[in-house]
Amino acid sequence: MIIKDVETKNLTPVFKIGDIPIFGDVILAPMDGYTDHPFRLICRKWGAACIYSEFINGLDLEGKHPPHLSERLFYHEAERPFGYQILDDLPERILNTARYLRSRNPDFIDINMGCCSRTVCSRGAGASLLLEPDKVSLIISKLTAELDIPVTAKIRLGWDEKSRNYLDIARRIEDAGASALAVHGRTKTQMYRGMADWDAISEVKQALRIPVIGNGDVKTADQIGPFLHHTKCDAVMIGRGAVGNPWIFARKNRSDCSRQEIFNTLKDHLFASMEYFGENHGLIVFRKQAINYMQNDWLSPDLRREALTTTDWHRFLSIIEQNLLS
Ligand SMILES: Cc1cc2nc3c(=O)[nH]c(=O)nc-3n(C[C@H](O)[C@H](O)[C@H](O)COP(=O)(O)O)c2cc1C
């Protein structure tokens, strides 16, 4: 899929990550298993101002690279500004991973300090880092001392309700030389339960001088303005609200899109997926995205089942087209 570079010559950046200008205030969140290269292209096309990779696990770069690694590492120039996100626990290995990723010429390197999965946290990576503030300082200062591109981090509010240490962590990250910080307004133990705490995100914004990107529970275009107004963040980062809904980056709700527009986007996304992963695998990978593009009342249960199991992309598209556009 060819995407024209966004014309930015005469635009004023909304903010900068280090010296990288960011021409917008709505950013795609990194989402393991979802924000693959095809989905990122679609989101960029709809106006996502900045792109993060799915997390790159430092362990995967050691020894024999697992088969999926090259798919996770690939990015296209059209995705810029583009940052690699690293997930790991050991400062030295994070540094080695960052050195390698730097050689692939991203715009910035981000450190994951928010992943709440049990396997990640049990090895001391992701949100577990929030329990070790000195390690957070060490990781960021090592990277900023070594790299010639901006270093950023993405955090949660703390491990649990009793240890909401987000202000300490945020200040340490800034003091260690980071160029921006993304904050998901939940603790690790909350996982995805409850609502993101926009007041806490706003406290981080007030406490820091570097740009703060707020994140959590912005699911519709109508929530973008109130979120930015409430938190005063430099940008909002959108994750789940973008899946099957990439027009959110153009501040449009699904109800603002014509059926043809929805169909065209779904088709572009499917074709991008097949171009990248190959025809068969591309369709299979696309299914989890397709579920989110579909509205419950679009298809009868039988047709829905067929659409989500067929291995024939022509059949898949004709089911969607006949039912969406008729
Ligand atoms: C399926 C899934 C995968 C995720 N993978 C990552 C990841 O790789 N790195 C990361 O920092 N956060 C990851 N997150 C967290 C999101 O980036 C984001 O912080 C969270 O979903 C809250 O934002 P939202 O309410 O806009 O979805 C993931 C979330 C989901 C739902």
Structure, described:
By secondary structure, the protein is an alpha/beta fold. The protein folds into two domains: 15-251, TIM Barrel (Alpha-Beta Barrel), CATH 3.20.20; 258-324, Orthogonal Bundle (Non-ribosomal Peptide Synthetase Peptidyl Carrier Protein, Chain A), CATH 1.10.1200. It is 42% helix and 14% strand. The protein has helices at 37-45, 58-61, 69-73, 91-102, 118-122, 133-146, 166-175, 198-207, 221-231, 259-277, 279-293, 301-309, 313-325; strands spanning 15-17, 20-22, 26-28, 51-57, 82-87, 108-113, 151-155, 180-184, 212-215, 235-238. Strands 3-10-9-8-7-6-5-4 form an eight-stranded parallel beta sheet. Strands 1-2 form a two-stranded antiparallel ribbon. Helix 7 packs parallel to helix 8 (198-207). The longest helix has 19 residues, at 259-277. The chain starts with 14 loop residues before the first strand and ends with a helix.
Quick structural summary:
The chain has about 325 residues and is of the alpha/beta class. It is built from 13 helices and ten strands.
How many strands in all?
A: 10
Give the structural class.
alpha/beta
Task: Enter the CATH topology name of the largest domain.
Answer: TIM Barrel
Strand order of the largest sheet: 3-10-9-8-7-6-5-4
Separation of the first and last Cα atoms: 27 Å
What characteristic shape results from the CA principal axes? globular
Provide the β-strand percentage band. 5-15%
How confident is the prediction overall: mean pLDDT?
Answer: 95
CATH superfamily of the largest domain: Aldolase class I
Helical content class: 40-55%
By DSSP (H or I, 4+ residues per run), the number of helices equals 13
CATH class of the largest domain: Alpha Beta
* Gyration radius, in Å: 20 Å
Under the CATH scheme, which architecture of the largest domain would be assigned? Alpha-Beta Barrel
What is the total domain count?
2
Low-confidence stretches: none
Order of helices and strands: EEEHEHHEHEHHEHEHEHEHHHH
